[in-house]
Structures are given as C-alpha cells and as structure tokens.
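Observation: inputs received (chain + adenine).
Thought: call the complex predictor directly.
Action: predict_structure
Action Input:
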Amino acid sequence: MNKTELMAYAAALPKAELHLHIEGSLEPELMFKLAQRNKIELPYKSVEEIRSAYQFSNLQDFLDIYYQGMSVLQTEEDFFDLTMAYLNRVRADNVRHVEIFFDPQGHTARGVPFGTAIGGILTAFSLAKIQFGMTTKLIMCFLRHLPEEDAFDTLKQAEPWLDQISGVGLDSSEVGHPPSKFERVFARAKELGLKLVAHAGEEGPPEYVYEALDQLTIDRLDHGNRSLEDQALIERLVREEMTLTVCPLSNLKLCVVDDLTSHPIKRMLDLGLRATINSDDPSYFGGYMNENFKGIIDALDLSKDDVRTLCENSFRGSFLSDGEKRAQLAKIAMV
Ligand SMILES: Nc1ncnc2[nH]cnc12
Ligand SMILES: [Zn+2]
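Observation:
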C-alpha cells in the first residue's frame, strides 16, 4: 500500500479516542462565539489572531493559553456545545467510541460549578448515543500543579455523578509534580470503583512512569514517551499489556519530538507496546484523530498491519466491556 492508500485505510477503520481533553477541542470560532454570548473579553481581536498565538515551546507555554481559553465556558449550554462539536467532528473520522477527559478544577476555580460542566458534557453524550450511536465515557482529571487536598475536594464534589464517571486522571504541569503526590487520592478513587489513568513520561522522566504504575496503580498510561529511555520499564509495560495513549501532533507542537520523522510510535509498536493514536488537544495542536494518522503515515514507514494494530489497540485499551471490545474488533476485521 502506498501512503495515500494507507491513509484511506486508516480513515476507514473504526477507532476509539482515549486521550482527549474536551477543553482542548475548543476551536477559536467557538471561543469567539462563547465570549460574545457570555460577554467575556478575550485578549484577541480575531480568530486568526487566536490561531497565530498557538506557538509553544513546551507544555507550560500551552497550558497558560489553554487555561485562559477555557474562561469562555460558563454555562451548561457552553459545555454541551463544546462537547457536541467535538463528537460531531470525530464522527467523520470514524471514531466510534471516546473516553473524554475534563478538568473540573479549571472551572470550579473560576466559580463555574462542577455540575454545570459535567451536566453539559453528559447531555451531549446522551444525544450522540441517540443520534449516531457513539459510545462515550468520562474521565475526570486532577490538576497536578495544585495540592492533593484540592483533588480530594474535587472527588467529593463529583459524588453525585460517580455512576456517570468512569475514571480519574492526572494532567497539567508534569515536571515537579510527580504522580506520588497524588497517591492517596488515587487510592480513594480506586476504592470508589473508578478506573485510574495518569499523564506520565510526556516531559517527566521514566521515574514518573514507575510511580504512576506502582504508587497510583494506573490502568492506562497517558503519553509515556519517555518510558523508551528505560529498557526494564519497556519490558514491564509490554509484559503488563499497558496501553499507552500516544499523541503525535501534540508531541510535535509541544516539542516533545523535533519532527514527526523522529516520532517513536513505530518503535513502540515494534517493541510490542500497546500504543494508540490520540489528539490530546486538537484545536491547539493542529488536528483531530485522522490528522494524527496522516502525520505519522506521511512521516514514518508504517505498514498496513501497524495501522490496523493501532486501531485495534484503541479498543483493547478502552474501558469498554469485553463483549463490546470483541464487537469493535470484529468490525475492524471487516474493513
Ligand atoms: N498534553 C497535556 N499534558 C498535560 N496536561 C494537559 N492538559 C491538557 N493537555 C495536556
Ligand atoms: Zn493530555
């Protein structure tokens, strides 16, 4: 298969997205519309000016703009519109199942109640299920630059919705905020029956991945790129069939890699790691699911088997039931 055919194959395959911050899918056009609707002053005069501000040299550069951008999200309708726009967009990429992150502390700290954010997101989930049969799960992330106490407080606020939250995650500024800082709140989330995921090894060292495995007891690893610096860690991740939610265009935009030709996704597959493709914050990083596939297909020497494995891994690594996973894998085999 040449690259054009391989891209058409990737586009046609059913897939799941497992690493998507809903606030990072806020397109500049919607940001402007919500700013006007909510009478919020933005430091930009036009959509073009917003887009040109999206130049980052590391994770923190991005996070500063990301937290500022979410200030336009005020009402349940705003969160509904944001989520519906994302679900409609990735439907066109043949994404059939999503496990979405949201950052409640990014909203409650601005005086927007937990229920406003989650209410809008869950209503969009229900509509997407009815309208186009998409399945969805919600993962609530703790902001790691804040104290563990604040994470406990957020978990408490989540109590009325725990039956509609699949898991907890850990995001925001990685270096200086190791997973071990959140050991107790993750233990509590586990007692409550929630799945556990954490960003680790995006900018942070392999030790952070070990902490996420040993101290947080994660079910899935977000990013994990820097695991490749440690042979014993690679072998363990392979042995434990740990899913890595890898985000190629994010890695490029945040300078985790210099160029997509040096992206480690092919190496990860060759090592036997259960890697998946995801968009992270697509509005900020230049593309949704299929644009991430296009980026790696253009830059790397991926085979048809590699592309299929990436899509299969997205369901294997999901929090769907075994039966649901089998059904999705059977659909992949039909393409
Ligand atoms: N890529 C990322 N890493 C850490 N925190 C984030 N929050 C949103 N996107 C993130
Ligand atoms: Zn992320």
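Thought: report the result.
Final Answer: The mean pLDDT is 98. The pocket of adenine (ligand 1) is lined by residues 21, 24, 59, 66, 171-172, 199, 202, 250, 280-281 (CB under 6 Å).
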